[in-house]
Fold Leucine-rich repeat-containing N-terminal plant-type domain-containing protein.
Amino acid sequence: RHLLLVVSLVSALAGANAATESEAEALLAWKASLAAAAALSDWTKAAPACSWLGVSCDAAGHVLSLRLVGLGLTGTLDALDFTALPDLATLDLNNNNLFGAIPASLSRLRSLAKLDLGSNGFNGSIPPQLGDLSGLVDLRLYNNNLADAIPHQLSRLPRIKHFDLGSNFLTDPDYSRFSPMPTVNFMSLYLNYLTGSFPEFVLNSSNVTYLDLSQNNFSRPIPDTLPKKLPNLMYLNLSVNAFSGGIPASLSKLRKLRDLRISTNYLTGGIPDFLESMSQMRVLELGGNPLGGPIPPVLGRLQMLQRLDLRSAMLVSTIPPQLGNLGNLRFTDLSMNQLSGVLPPELAGMRKIREFGISSNNLAGQIPPAMFTSWPDLINFQVFKNSFTGKIPPEIGKATKLEILYLFSNNFTGSIPVEIGQLVNLVQLDLSVNWLTGLIPHSLGNLKQLTRLTLFFNELIGAIPPEIGDMTALQVLDVNTNHLEGELPTTITSLGNLQYLALFDNNFTGTIPPDLGKGLSLTDAAFGNNSFSGELPQSLCHGLALQNFTANHNNFSGTLPPCLKNCAGLYHVRLEQNQFTGDISEVFGVHPILDSLDVSKNQLTGKLSPHWSQCTNLTLLSMNNNLMSGSIPAALCRLTSLRSLDLSNNQFTGELPHCWLKLKALVFMDVSNNGLWGNFPASTSLDDFPLQSLRLANNSFSGEFPSVIETCCSMLITLDLGDNMFVGDIPSWIGTSVPLLRVLTLPSNKFSGVIPSELSKLSNLQVLDLSKNSFTGSIPGTFGNLTIEISGIDLSSNLLTGNIPEELTYLQGLLFLNLSRNDLSGSIPESIGGLELLESLDLSWNELSGAIPPTISKLNSLGVLNLSNNLLRGVIPTGSQMQTFADESIYGNNPGLCGFPLSIACSDEGTEDHQELGRGTCGFSASNAGAVVFFCIFTISKSADKKAT
């Protein structure tokens, strides 16, 4: 009998050894399949499996638990033979880099009680076979990439208590096949793609205490039956869905509820008073709903409340002083509502508050100093975008745990309190957009932890204190738009973590410290609109991280830092209006994400090299008013994102590349004031593109009016072809093909023919300049159809004939009218006085006759008048504005005129003589023969002078 017992024991031990050996082999085979398994270095055949990391066994040596959490394991579960682990009760692989499908073979682990594959990269569907794990108590598949419908088989797990499928891409199951889950007490389905009304199977899971359905797309009202169905709820999170209707009054029956989060839905009807009965509440989040109404004072009775979130809830209210009774409150956010009134001093009673936010409201008054003396644990204070006034309380220095202080966009006045320098834990300080005055306190140098200091849009004066260099953690320094002056302290170069520096719109002088940027990784540097001088620091872009760089409107000189060429991340550059020199194409390299570059109004030289075409994301390129030369390379046509191109006022020569029409995003183009020549590039069958402004003035372009405009440019607003050598007619299509045109300037060309009446169809036209051409015929009477938008017309120095159309006087918005140096005849229209806004009128050097209409005295805005060299007669009208024109020359060579300011007086007899002289004939009688002869000679000589001119 003893021998039989020994044999049985040996046999059992042999079986156990065989079982553990097969389990070890299965685990080693899986380890071998992993791409990263350094943490499993002790998984070797030299040691028993039960001693390996994460492996637990029973007394017989069978693997019961596999816990490999956060070890960086990378690979799949495909090589793990689950049949070799029949006793496995716990499989916990949370927080690794595992991916691929969850194997259906997991269902063979009949002893499995806990399965945790959370925070990995598993994808595909959840195997429905997991529903066969009848002993499973804890299922965690959250934070993966699982998709498709939730298998209804999971609802049949008879012992399941913890059910977490959150943060995946799961969709609605077949709810009709979903069973109640009465054993579950923790259920989380957050951040998936679930839709429809509140799931019925959830309502039938009567023992749930923790329920998270947030960040889905559930809709319709929250069911009134929820408290009856789920009476044990302690945590309820329905945030970020599409639930609608009011907050159900039945929720007051959830006596155990401590945490209610229903923010960011479409709930309406205000904040209900019944919440006061939920005395165990620790967390109340209702924000992000269009609730409306006031903040109920009864919320002050929730003595256990620690977190209150009512942000962005369309609340119209004052802040109830009763909230000061919330002595356990740690966090409150009332921002983005329509709160008004003042901050009640009773709020100082929230003695445990750590984070306080009331930004973006209509609150006013002063900040109660007691807030800072009574809140010893305060770390975050945000009251920006309100209308708070008065000084920043010096008591703020008592809140020594403060890490974030946002007071920007208010109406604070006075100086920045030096006591802020006592807030040694401060990480972010924003006092911008206020009315703060005085100096920047030297005490700010004590803020060694500060990473962000923004003081822009205030009235600060003086220099930046040298102690700024002690703030070595500083990453953002923004003091733009103040009245700061003086030179930058050299200590600013000690800010080794500085990434964003904004000094623009101040009165700084002197040079930039030469070591600024050395050892830094500056991404943004803005020096614009100051009086800086000298050269830019050569080390400014030393870290090659520069993205946005503005130094415009200063007195900088010399060459640009050569390191700019290697800043591949440059995005936005403004250097205009300085005295920079050097070859532009030598300074800049290939910047693949460069969006805008403005180097205008400098003294830069060189040619446009083809490498500019590699800056393929450019939308704005402005190089005007420099000394650049050479031709415009065709390679620029590759800049297909370009919206604005300004090369004006340089020394470019040659023809404009025909490929410019490939710039399909172009809105603004200015190549005026260069030496460009040749016919303007044309093309046919063009798609329309968004060009609004085309300026070609003061070059040597030739040929006829650019026909390409008819087909490419229906959005055109400004067209300037002045001072070129264009010839031919203005095409009639201009009145219909460019209907948005506001400015048309064609002066100093060789255009001829009649002025097309179709111009009157340009209902948006504001300025029309056709001067110094060879237009013939009469002024179209249809110009009277131009709208009140028209403010200036210049038709001077042409060959126009006929009368001045009365219709021109219908243009009541006209400020400027020049018809001089033509052959216009007839009288000045009597209705000229209707142009009440007219500031400049020039009708000189024509053949106008008759009297000056008395209505001209109604032009009270007139500042410039020239009627000289015509055949006008009679008395010069008087009036308040006419009396200001004392220069005789503006009426000169009109021998029939008399009166002020001429020296010819108007007597009754003399007036008749002058009127007779002004009739434009050479007939005479004995009594006035001499005068008539003079008049005829004058007329002939004037005509000759005019032709010579």
About this structure: Residues 2-33 form the longest helix (32 residues). Residues 206 and 905 are 111 Å apart (CA to CA).
